[in-house]
Amino acid sequence: MKHLLSTRDLSRDQAIAILDLAEDMAAAQTREVKKLPALRGKTVVNLFFEDSTRTKISFEAAAKRLSADVISFAAKGSSVSKGESLKDTAQTLAAIGADGVVIRHGSSGAPRTLATSGWIDAGIVNAGDGTHEHPTQGLLDAYTMRKRIHGDASRGRALDGVRVAIVGDILHSRVARSNVWLLETLGAEVTLVAPGTLLPVGIDTWPVTTLFDLDEAIAARPDVLMMLRIQSERMNAAFFPNAREYSRQWGLDDERLARLPEGSLVMHPGPMNRGLEISSAAADSARSTVIEQVANGVSIRMAVLFMLLTGGTE
Amino acid sequence: MTAFQITGAVLPDGTSTDLFVQDGVFVDVAPTGATRIDAAGLQALPGLVDLHTHLREPGFEQSETVLTGTRAAAAGGFTAVFAMANTMPVSDTAGVVEQVKALGDLHNYATVRPIGAVTVGLEGQRLSEIGAMAQSRAQVRVFSDDGKCVSDALLMRRALEYVKTFGGVIAQHSQEPRLTEGAQMNEGVLSGELGLAGWPAVAEEAIIARDVLLAQHVGARLHVCHVSTAGSVDVIRWAKARGIDVTAEVTPHHLLLTEQLVAGYDARFKVNPPLRRDEDVHALRAGLADGTIDIVATDHAPHPAESKECAWDEASFGMVGLESALNVVIASVVESGQLDYADVARVLSTAPARIGLLDGYAEPFAVGAPAHLTLVDTAARSIFGTEHLHGKSTNSPYLGRELPGRVVTTVHGGTATVLDGVLVDAAEVARG
Amino acid sequence: MTARPVLQQADITRALTRIAHEILESSRGSGDLVLLGIPTRGVVLAERITRTLNEIEPGSAAWGALDVTMYRDDLSRNPTRTPSPTSIPAGGIDGRTVVLVDDVLYSGRTIRAALDAINDIGRPRVVRLAALVDRGHRELPIRADFVGKNLPSSKDERIFVRLAEVDGGEDEVAIA
Predict the structure, then answer these.
(1) If interface means Cβ-Cβ distance under 8 Å, which residues of chain A face chain C?
(2) Most buried among A195, A296, B48, B187, by the most CB within 10 A?
(3) Which chains touch B (3 or more CB pairs under 8 A)?
(4) Alpha helices in chain A (DSSP H)
(5) How far is CA B127 from the centre of its chain?
(6) Residue B69 φ/ψ region, left for φ over 0, alpha for ψ in the -120 to 50 degree band, beta for the rest
(7) SS in 3 state form for B360-423?
């Protein structure tokens, strides 16, 4: 596998292989010496054109735990903000000898443009492109679900029959898209919950059930309830009247948390708007996987970097 | 060279004949000292007329100039182009349109008819000096804010009423701006999957519906640029059935390409209006065949490499199309049997000339008429490459694709601009 | 190309029993033995030897698996490998006698990787190496402390090890 651009491209076997490899990576994280030498001598560049703290740090940690050299590039204050093109940035990195590039970009499709352009020969990992995909987030979410549901017997298993409800701004969410395709591949049943304005045209062709009503979704006893962040930076006001109405209709408040089945997981990709789409109690409850999603993110990203950067020609 | 003897050409109606050109017009006897052109097996067409081209000069000469754009036109078999007004400065005064026409006359590869902007600076606020442009040396008859839509209903009404005064026509780029803010590709299942903001069909159809009703109400003529959806074809068909004076154009790319090409995020396929679905392509072909759509116009839109070699969102909208227009028309509607070459002559020459009020194309090949013609090897097939592009820009969606047809000869007002498939040298063409 | 058997099931059992006695003898009853098998067949051998050790001297040994994929020196040269699980018995390896167990000792690179892996897990008192077959052609200065059979071979030949738990049927070592 040369690039990881989307979860749509992953077969069931490939997806399970990544999740299993992440288990090995996670095991190494419990030792005293957390580092593995597998990517010693490789250079990984974090090419972040959009602000991000958690994802960038996660990839940085993952690369360093595999003994790779990491160079982080943030758009602000860089030559890109002075107008340097993606093409020139890519060719500069190629000249420096980057083996892998982790790219987050505001334009959907930018990682694919980079991977197919011929400007650079490195393995490309999509860390989030516009509203298109965020494949490592999808993978770490699946890993988290699998670990909580199957525990030590997770290896080799998918998520067949697991019922997942995803709530929020589906229209603008790359996390939602990556999750939908991957969960379908792993055999889960997905329900999306949002107001009509936040569902994309053509959603009826997606392999999901769609509901406008969060209470109805909770009454269906999902195994996983994933809340998406309401992104004020991506929208103008006409998607819903105000934050209060959104929260009342689609927020996971304490009352809804109480109606959620005991064993159901509460997930959130972060960063959270406490009090808007998720209450503090929900975020901090034992059912919440928010913190372990972060740790699992490092393991998944280690697995992905290992797969992309080892394995030469036959 | 002003005298030609063209033997064995097949006319649009299928009959074979010899054609004779002398002193810029068709004559009925072989002139002495004529250059002989053997046209056996070649399809003769009247010189093609493009009602929708972007020559980019003045202001964007890095993408194209009047010289390079008209050379590209000649290579595609065109002898006349209507140059859109989104130049810099905008073509909203007599001065700019006269300059553009003068450049076209100077180079002589094709007749350049400048299009005047409907509103000052294309800003959609105030009418431009339509009268001045109509009466200038450029004799502007077609007015368009193309690139942008005249979206204000009142302003569109005024424009339709005012242009009647000068015998002109408004050519509308139909795009409701509020429904298409930040739009990148056709809105549908694919745009939702790719994470690209959608350009819904209704944003085009709603404007066309409004405009045909306005045209009916004020008794004015309307021309609809680059129709791209099945729904738009339905609205225009309905309007014509009611006797509304509306004409419409379709681009070659909308007759052949669909939104599936966007899936790889290759910005060569980014265009406005966007590539749409299979159903739209089929409706457009049927509309062209039954006359609902009157003409084919290229919307030739050159852009420099750096504005296409980047992330999709950042890329410019547009494709070059003068050199490939005839090839794509053959590949889409001629090979499907929907149009024959008499229809091709109509949709690519006589009808656009009529809509744009351009003289000299009403009676192709008639003795005494200006000698505008092109000879095409319709059986040839080749892989379209950058060697087929003669403008300054290479943003063509057909690179690497096999296309039928090859322009062998183009004659503009008795001057050969293309001979043996090769552009004639500028100095010679300028001399006439 | 037919493989010629060099060890049958009975030979292998005797060799493993002898190795177990040699391990006990050299460790002088330290009672802190940890046998780490290198996947896949080394793990089977480690388990068998441990069982024998505990039959002779109960409680003297524990076994586990040590995957060395991450420490290989040829990761960029070959297609991506899938690691197997590593499991270290309770009590870890710090201060204990670790015996690495593998089926075939050849270039020595796998053992070099195993030593690096051990280094990141803990600090044993001493590390030894037991191999069912030593076929020579070392590329690094590594030697086995306990060997089932020395099997000189040429580089064109291949050694095939069959163990019941992994391959089914009877145990066998063959060369072709």
Answers:
(1) 1, 17, 20-21, 23-24, 27-28, 31-33, 35-38, 66, 155, 306-307, 309-312, 314
(2) B48
(3) A
(4) 12-28, 54-65, 86-96, 110-117, 135-150, 174-185, 214-219, 243-250, 254-259, 280-284, 290-309
(5) 24
(6) alpha
(7) CCCCCCCCCCECCEEEEEEEEEEECCHHHCCCCCCCCCCCCCEEEEEEEEEEECCEEEEECCEE
Among B135, B154, B35, B39, residue whose Cα is nearest residue B95: B135
Q: Which of residues 125-154 of C touch A (CB under 8 A)?
A: none
Of A35, A306, A311, the CB nearest to C79: A311
Tell me the count of A-B CB pairs closer than 8 A.
73
Q: Check CB contact under 8 Å for C75 and A38.
A: yes
ipTM: 0.84
E-assigned strands of B48-155? 48-53, 78-83, 111-114, 142-143
Tell me the chain B residues in contact with residue A129 when contact means C-beta distances shorter than 8 Å.
195
Classify domain A136-289 at the CATH superfamily level: Aspartate/ornithine carbamoyltransferase (3.40.50.1370)
Domains and CATH numbers, chain B: 46-360 (3.20.20.140)
Residue A31 C-alpha, separation from nearest chain C C-alpha, in angstroms = 6
Q: Is the peptide bond before C40 cis (omega within 30 degrees of 0)?
A: yes
Q: Which of B192, B266, B306 sits opposite A202 (nearest CB)?
A: B192
In CATH terms, the superfamily for domain A12-134+294-309 is: Aspartate/ornithine carbamoyltransferase (3.40.50.1370)
| B38 belongs to the catalytic site | no
Question: Facing residues of B403 across strands?
Answer: B382
Q: Active site residue: B299, B313, B343, B359, which one?
A: B299
Nearest to C80 among A31, A37, A307 (CB): A307
Domains in chain A: boundaries: 12-134+294-309, 136-289
The answer to whether residue A130 neighbours chain B at the CB level (below 8 Å) is: yes
Let me know if the fold of A12-134+294-309 is the same as that of A136-289.
yes
Please judge whether B195 and A109 are an interchain contact, meaning their C-beta atoms are less than 8 angstroms apart: yes
Nearest to B265 among A113, A177, A206 (CB): A113
Predicted structure pTM score: 0.87
Residue C94 amino acid letter: D
Q: Which CATH architecture has domain C11-19+31-71+86-155?
A: 3-Layer(aba) Sandwich (3.40)
Give residue-wise pLDDT tens across range B271-330: 999 999 999 999 999 999 999 999 999 999 999 999 999 999 999 999 999 999 999 999
Per domain, the residue ranges of chain C are: 11-19+31-71+86-155
pLDDT values of chain B reduced to their tens digit, one per residue, 432 residues: 579 999 999 999 999 999 999 999 999 999 998 999 999 999 999 999 999 999 999 999 999 999 999 999 999 999 999 999 999 999 999 999 999 999 999 999 999 999 999 999 999 999 999 999 999 999 999 999 999 999 999 999 999 999 999 889 999 999 999 999 999 999 999 999 999 999 999 999 999 999 999 999 999 999 999 999 999 999 999 999 999 999 999 999 999 999 999 999 999 999 999 999 999 999 999 999 999 999 999 999 999 999 999 999 999 999 999 999 999 999 999 999 999 999 999 999 999 999 999 999 999 999 999 999 999 999 999 999 999 999 999 999 999 999 999 999 999 999 999 999 999 999 999 987
How near does any CA of chain A get to the CA of B285, in Å? 25
Q: Are B311 and A174 within 8 A, CB to CB?
A: no
